[in-house]
């Protein structure tokens, strides 16, 4: 009864929008009506209901649907009401899916043999192009083998591609939203006057289908019939008085996976290969192998891969069609898949772009980060200050509301120090502030440092709880990251959030609008953050930064860089990196700069697209991450950028050259910083740019360049050790057994940076880390200088990750220079390049070691401690 009622109402309702023309239908019953397998292309989500309305009277076919029609509540209900038989999905049936699918297909074959008719969509998923790709379809061949003699009728739906219910926009349509919009358009057009979309439904019997052949042969014939006269993507107006003529639109880009599979970590590569070997039976798995043509996967295999990817690595891939090769799968396992769900950016609200010119960008006075934050928030509580694709845009009032909810929860955590383990995100910024308001010192956890370093650091400062989220933990565990050091200390915010009552949230929202007196009375801890160094020592050094340290650094930065009222910052550096904590986590909140976050700094393509979407004017990053963005960005992506701030390592010339050539309006400000200095020490100025230099020291930073031998100031142009002092310099490590980094010079205490610089016409030029020099033949040999010469010759422009690194053995006298390479560089070739660069024979490489991947830190810098461990055989 429900079935008949829906069909009776559905036909006239569909015709309010669609003008349906059928062809070939009258010829089908001439040979009889029972035992027909109708196979249709699948341009939209309304196809089953449109065809059901046309076929029900004479053929009453059993509708067979895939997961596209179980994705939303309206479709699930309609499919159930129409008696549809869904194909099994691994999300519901797990390891039993293949067995249940075989049983279901056998049941379909029996229905056909008994005289029932079936309506199926052999593409098994919503079309992503105007034509159907059936290469991975195995269901039709399986049914025909079990029901020989079945009549096959192909149904071509033309004119629907481009509908709101299609994926022609590049994203999967939201059924409920589109139904509501459609109802609104119907009412606006007084029901009967809505412009009609011309739809052609063509029926064609396929007598030459090789029913007993393999799936490839069957699919080739079906594709030829289904794709004949495929109609282009067409827009049909929705209002009778507007845009009267339909028009053809360009085809959407094919879903794809972008990146270089060589950059995939070895442990991820091995896990993917092992899984493919297990599910395909192929022992030799190569990056270029096609998942369907070479490895034989079908639609179900694709779906199982999609679910396995999300379970194993935490990265969803909503469109298995984007996974074509093994290389695509390797990249998808690192989050590089551009699918309909991931590739479509959420719309950016208009409030993000709104600026109040009467509010200057300046930092209020105050002695603590919470105090300054509250003063800035009170200037304009409704001002948008941060955003990301997961949480949307947040105003100061939204941030205050979240802090009021979280503050009592964090106050109840044991201990004065609480770990914070999150990537760059709006949530990380809010949680950092909430910890300070709760009187807790945030300890920024670097999960890339290794389990031993994490455990040592957390135990050193007495951290009993580490705040994180399940998605990050699951993803890291899937990537074989050892989290045993934090596992027993985790406080998962998504789990805690489910226990927060609606009344608590409403109360916080009300207080955020009426007054913040409870926050004014909060006592911030003396230490604003604890970070850990990632040097070559056996244990990380714990660096406590006070509110005064960080506030002094931010005030200096605002004098060096002129931030504008309409500035929009792109933030991707993790908070456990001092550069990211100060410049993209704390600074924007205290100045009122809008900042948009993306959690993975290695996803260059996504970062470029976010810069375009949010019209970012300022990008902060390390050269490694910046280079990754520049290599994959289209010209339009970075047009809005005004300033690029580069730090943490020397900015290579190709980054300068690429920006100058493709985005000449963008200014590169290279700087220099150290975790212990909060972290910025010097930076180039817009009015005095010196490419290749690290600029002038900040206003409050006193500095001296000292000769290593004499301990006296050097002459301008001569290299020496950089000493600094000032309010942004920390007071000392928390490690009890670490040697003091301070020394007395000219009667005062200075921080010894460990870096060699020289002064050139008023600016500083970085020479390298002292520990990255070795003494050979009485001469100080620079390992970075050797790396730079070799990189210019062997590092390709398209390579994001480093392909080589130079280290020295640990002998005090006459150490060997070792070249670690993933590019197959020969020793003679390397030394020829070194000689051509004008370096002496002392710089010659003694040994070349080929490795799978140059190890890197979470900041993108080469992990020289890991390379040292390879030389000594000790754990990193």
Automatic annotation (TrEMBL):
InterPro entries: ACP-like_sf, AMP-bd_C_sf, AMP-binding_CS, AMP-dep_synth/lig_dom, ANL_N_sf, ATP-dep_AMP-bd_enzyme, Plipid/glycerol_acylTrfase. Residues 36-160 form the Phospholipid/glycerol acyltransferase domain. SUPFAM superfamilies: Acetyl-CoA synthetase-like, ACP-like, Glycerol-3-phosphate (1)-acyltransferase. Residues 247-266 are annotated as: Disordered. Gene3D superfamilies: 3.30.300.30, N-terminal domain of ligase-like. It holds the Pfam family Acyltransferase. SMART domains: PlsC. This is Phospholipid/glycerol acyltransferase domain-containing protein. The lineage of its organism: Bacteria, Pseudomonadati, Acidobacteriota, Holophagae, Holophagales.
